[in-house]
Amino acid sequence: xxxxxxxxxxxxxxxxxxxxxxxxxxxxxxxxxxxxxxxxxxxxxxxxxxxxxxxxxxxxxxxxxxxxxxxxxxxxxxxxxxxxxxxxxxxxxxxxxxxxxxxxxxxxxxxxxxxxxxxxxxxxxxxxxxxxxxxxxxxxxxxxxxxxxxxxxxxxxxxxxxxxxxxxxxxxxxxxxxxxxxxxxxxxxxxxxxxxxxxxxxxxxxxxxxxxxxxxxxxxxxxxxxxxxxxxxxxxxxxxxxxxxxxxxxxxxxxxxxxxxxxxxxxxxxxxxxxxxxxxxxxxxxxxxxxxxxxxxxxxxxxxxxxxxxxxxxxxxxxxxxxxxxxxxxxxxxxxxxxxxxxxxxxxxxxxxxxxxxxxxxxxxxxxxxxxxxxxxxxxxxxxxxxxxxxxxxxxxxxxxxxxxxxxxxxxxxxxxxxxxxxxxxxxxxxxxxxxxxxxxxxxxxxxxx
Amino acid sequence: xxxxxxxxxxxxxxxxxxxxxxxxxxxxxxxxxxxxxxxxxxxxxxxxxxxxxxxxxxxxxxxxxxxxxxxxxxxxxxxxxxxxxxxxxxxxxxxxxxxxxxxxxxxxxxxxxxxxxxxxxxxxxxxxxxxxxxxxxxxxxxxxxxxxxxxxxxxxxxxxxxxxxx
Amino acid sequence: xxxxxxxxxxxxxxxxxxxxxxxxxxxxxxxxxxxxxxxxxxxxxxxxxxxxxxxxxxxxxxxxxxxxxxxxxxxxxxxxxxxxxxxxxxxxxxxxxxxxxxxxxxxxxxxxxxxxxxxxxxxxxxxxxxxxxxxxxxxxxxxxxxxxxxxxxxxxxxxxxxxxxxxxxxxxxxxxxxxxxxxxxxxxxxxxxxxxxxxxxxxxxxxxxxxxxxxxxxxxxxxxxxxxxxxxxxxxxxxxxxxxxxxxxxxxxxxxxxxxxxxxxxxxxxxxxxxxxxxxxxxxxxxxxxxxxxxxxxxxxxxxxxxxxxxxxxxxxxxxxxxxxxxxxxxxxxxxxxxxxxxxxxxxxxxxxxxxxxxxxxxxxxxxxxxxx
Lengths: 450, 166, 373
Description:
The complex is a heterotrimer of chains A (about 450), B (about 170) and C (about 375).
Chain A: H1 18-23, H2 28-36, H3 39-49, H4 61-66, E1 77-82, H5 91-98, H6 100-114, E2 118-123, H7 128-143, E3 159-164, H8 174-181, E4 205-209, H9 210-222, H10 224-229, E5 231-232, E6 235-236, E7 238-245, E8 251-256, H11 261-266, E9 280-284, E10 293-294, H12 295-299, H13 311-314, H14 318-321, E11 329-334, H15 339-353, H16 359-376, H17 382-395, H18 403-427, H19 431-434
Helix pairs in contact in A: 2-6, 2-9, 3-6, 5-6, 6-9, 15-16, 15-18, 16-17, 16-18, 17-18
Chain B: H1 7-17, H2 29-39, H3 46-56, H4 60-69, E1 81-86, H5 89-93, H6 96-107, E2 120-125, E3 137-139, E4 142-144, H7 149-165
Helix pairs in contact in B: 1-2, 2-3, 3-4
Chain C: E1 6-11, E2 14-19, H1 24-31, E3 57-62, E4 75-76, E5 86-89, H2 94-109, H3 125-133, E6 150-151, E7 156-158, H4 168-176, E8 183-185, E9 192-194, H5 208-212, E10 218-220, E11 233-238, E12 247-253, E13 256-262, H6 283-288, E14 296-300, H7 327-330, H8 364-372
Parallel strand pairs in C: 1-5
Antiparallel strand pairs in C: 1-2, 3-4, 3-5, 6-7, 7-10, 8-9, 11-12, 11-14, 12-13
Helix pairs in contact in C: 2-3
């Protein structure tokens, strides 16, 4: 049983209400931070904790906070990014749905640290019922004196507002989110200026993921140094992993980042093994945009060492043989899954979600989708595979925002690791419509004897 | 269908606008469009969009630009219940294709179409953040998860009954 | 008055000093020639423009004197300001040349390439860009995206199929008129310039969207299909106009004024008037003053030697010669046929006539004859 810092109380009956949450020790961090700590001390604790952004990019949170500009007389804002839209990722939803007060508590402390009197939660529009849960929690916190004017008599005023999005993956990108929060199209901004200098309404703004802000609560309660002792290397603390696909126990798990990928997939505490006794073929370990890995490279690094569920180990080997922890959206594919079809649906997703602002992404995502559909439906040619490779290469790194990269990486990794499956589709236009390439040599070397 | 808010809707609209600093009322556009869509029969006509523009004191084109960008705003009339079935990777590997086919067959409509009785619209959508509970669909504000053919049948029956009772 | 700080920046090996705050693109334009990256969306006279088309991507091989680390990715030179000691590679960077070829391919992917019947041909930035950085073959084998044509009022036609979504016309409406009625609708590869419901663009300065459009998406209906820009003689002229500077370029054939545009500089942007303001022109000057007597002619407008517009004009200025061989001679004795299918695009063509049967070059009469035969 690993350490649980966020979900330890998730199963307490009634924990969604203020009363139970408070009785279980909730809002202690607000009392401690607002009454006993200066804003600089809070930022310092977060820095010491080594907390990295849990939305996908993994940028050190304390450092991000220290960048915020503090011009005289200009309000600053904290914005919580609850626009969880990366396929495979549903951890923030779980946290907000079952532990709304944990997020509110983290938001109050973080708002105090950053000097935000009006803090916004931007939640994806589809999570309508969670919006109600959060608004209810905010009302309760306000009634208890943890929000509103002069919180706990400290003179700090803070209100939290929840805004629903309108259905757009791109709004998970922080500058697109800010645009959307301003009532505009979710077109990412061209940086610089960065949000820390000119963000929401051109005011200094910090945008953080739900899980990141919730993690501030245990950091304040236990101290940054203690938090940093959990985990390994630069992967400190705990991480929520949302596991889905062909496994026995899909769901949201809190892990300390010292367990192996193999344990995560096969132990009953987590995914409980592959569904229906089938074999593991591949996995996208950090949300749909990170590179897919075949079973052997997933469970062990290229050097043959066990791979761990943390930032460093999952990216060991770079994109050639590794992947990324990303947002923690862990998608498992069994022996019956077709890599071409999976890549096609993801390409369709990114084409659908491209904002259309810059040409490589607008045109390139649609082109990749069309070629993948062509191969998937048995009309592909060998040259299409190389063409796909060239298109993704020309999108990657050349776009305004990371959506271009996010659309390119899945295609690149699928071709890099499963080229023979693409070729099989091309060579077997009819057979590929009725049957499957199957496992072939992509078997998990630990659980499938050679 | 009226395209002005009644008193209750107007109170909610004012609550939305009040969340933003003075002069930044445009920020309320997305929530205001959700409110308008819920209030005006599940979709947003040009009149509805113009109405929201006038309430927020912005140009109609600013509203058109936003309403057409986001996928949740229906700019054409839809059925009483909209089945938005997820088809992205994680749902696909968990069998969403079969569910989509089953709904098409059962309701005798293609994606984007509405049943003749105006009851159901089928929409194929991209990832809704329910990957662990796949296959799934969204109906209004509710997520229907772990879909099977039997479950689809009972959902359809449930909504038909709901429509008859109202 | 505080002293202005100057930064040294080197582009493709050429060093220049520019005021702090200058973008890489502007610095490169000061050097001029091939060193200046192409720009399809950036427009110096329009605030907030740029960053979108990605044609001006450059490699920053040295960040600055203080922090010499190279930038990890190619950057949009139109939106990146120079640092002191910065070193930039444009055409000397293999990465840039490769990425730019990619961007050109992306921009052309859904472009109809209907240049033979497009009014913008000859002064089209996308044509120039494709000529300089593109390939002669496309690798795209799917149906291209098309949109219906729209009239934006009586003087402006929107041909969305040709649009590259540079947003310049949106910025123009925002910054020159008091009420914007057109914008970007929808998203991704379906995004389009539109008004949502049929509306006309009536503001007195809205005609400038035609001048800022880098392609033939927004064209002047008073000029549409009337003539080719390279057959016309551009003349600088002015009139006493109550609403704008009245400083224009007339595009004449003989004494006939075919169209009126603002005066454009070597980067294709509106020239400043002598008082330093951008020389936008009003709709009256642009659409309604089509008599030579409306204008005081200043003289022929100098056009870049490289432009097709300069071909055949001003003997002595431009070294063009008429080829001695005919097309027939170089084509093995065969008369050329029309090579491009423009049925859907042109109103003068008859879609029911097989183009292969037409001996080119041809015009409306040829079609009528075949139809009646």
